[in-house]
Amino acid sequence: REVLAGLVAAEGRLVTADTLVADLWAEPGAGALGALRTFVAALRRATEPGRPPRTPPRLLVTQGPGYALRLPREAVDVQRFEDALAAARRPPHDVAALGEALAAWRAPAYADFPDAPWAQRERTRLEELRLEGVELRAGVLLDSDYDSYSDSYSDSGEGAGLVAALGEHVAEHPWREPAWGLLARALYRAGRRADALATLRRARAMLVEQLGLDPGPGLQRLETAMLNESASVGAAPRPWPGTGTRLGPRTTVDLARTLALAGGDALVSARRDRLGAVQAAERTGDVALTARVIGAYDVPAIWSRSDDPAQSRAVVAAAERTLAALGPEGPPDLRARLLATVAVESRGGDGDGSREWRRRQAAATSAAHAAEALARELGDPALLAFALNGVFMQSFARPGLAPRRDAIGAELVALADRHALPTSGILGRLVRLGSASALGQCERAAAHAAAAEELAAARESPLVPVLTAWSRARVLAERSAGPGGPSPAEAAGAYRSADAALAAAGMPGLHRGLLPLALLGLRLLHGRPAPTGPRLDWGPYLPWARPLVLLAQEDAAGARAALAAQPEPPRDHLQEALWCLTAHAATRLGESGAAARAAAALRPAAAEHAGAASGMLTLGPVRHYIEEAEAL
User: Fold this and answer.
1) Is 389:427 a contact under the CB 8 Å cutoff?
2) Residue 307 sits in a domain of what CATH number?
3) N or C: which end of the chain has fewer CB within 10 A?
């Protein structure tokens, strides 16, 4: 039955056998594919009982690597409902078939499969379409002659049936702004003007008190029209509240955005408040409102490892659910913000390298480019800046992409200068600082750091000097390896000072493990062994540092085992540095296979400096590690 349901939900499209197996079993066994084929054979007998032996099936067909169920649209409840909804959207907005389809809706879609992820996604999408159908039908009735729709009111008075139906709808979904507007209009049309205004004020109170959100512009215009007794009260409601608008200045999410830029405890609170607002918005059932809340948090992101991976995953999941509910015809600005959110929050450094992680990263990269395309089409510079932030966060697919990131940073700076977007200007300068550092362009890196600090001082953004302090420490480390430069101790002291400031910045994803890695890079620049202090917290970088630490402790066997267990570096700011550690350890241990893999991965970055893409540390030129590995 679940195979049948999954094929129905695909609406005639191919569903691969691998997808069906993954949907059916959390941990598919060796016989999973054979069991699936048995299910398909049983379904073919059930759907075409009179099909002669050895004749090809007409309904459940094999197609490439999977199956497709080819049913006429009138045979599927969901597709009949979607067709009725589409007809009601188009002039002359005939809602008779839509009313019949809504009356046939008896329970949540795919209720027999409450825990199946595919069913949860489809159930969310269809429930949003059902609610839209209820509201679309009511809007058409309100914009039409009541006499033409006798089912819209009862014998107790004109419009009473519609008022009662909308009252029940609002009671079940109290956070849907369109529902409140429709109920108020129905009351107003029925001559109950005081009740209509009281309804709008109840909606305002709930939104402000529970979510910290002002009503959307549609409800605000409707209240003004009612107070002025305007004929525009009868105008059709906009299908997607919030389209083309920004959240009000006093909203919870805007407050979280402001706090995030302050860093420290305020940043931690901002992340918590942001997730709370997203979860509260989702509970309302109002998809447009949820999209507004999720997409409003366009705080610039600079580091490719999340400070709270679990929270990031929760935000991405909420954004993906909301995108599915909006559908491809949803408002493009809302969709662009949701897509950008997915791209920004899907950090490459947070994965485990599994097939599922790779799939999600590919989806995040696709989301980034889709958001960018929508933003360019809409001509919204702030939205484009947010989308470009997502493109930047997905620009670590392989080593050697510093020039691509520099182009992203340059466009962010240009947008900021043309359209007075200072936070985007800071982000662009920091992006260019990292790319210039990676390319060994010290003077350009220093200029970008100074420009970012100047903007930050004007905007009271205390996090920027914390980041640029690391950049200056990196320069000292690089100069310490040359003649007449500062001493290694001076460079190490600068790293430690920068680390002390970063520890209080509320950015654990950036802070943890960064100082030991920087000190290791400084030692490698001077041909010294890895640091082995017991208090060093290598954080997420331990698998790549461990072979060198063990070698410094003269444990070659342990180092060799650690090298063999080493995963591929994550796709983040420090992937070149980690590949260089692999190459160096493999060279010292005489492991030619590991050395060759590292050299092959690093070749596209041969002109860059290892670790300098972060703008915060360096292990020296990548070319040195490639040559060392290739000479083995």
Assistant:
1) yes
2) 1.25.40
3) N
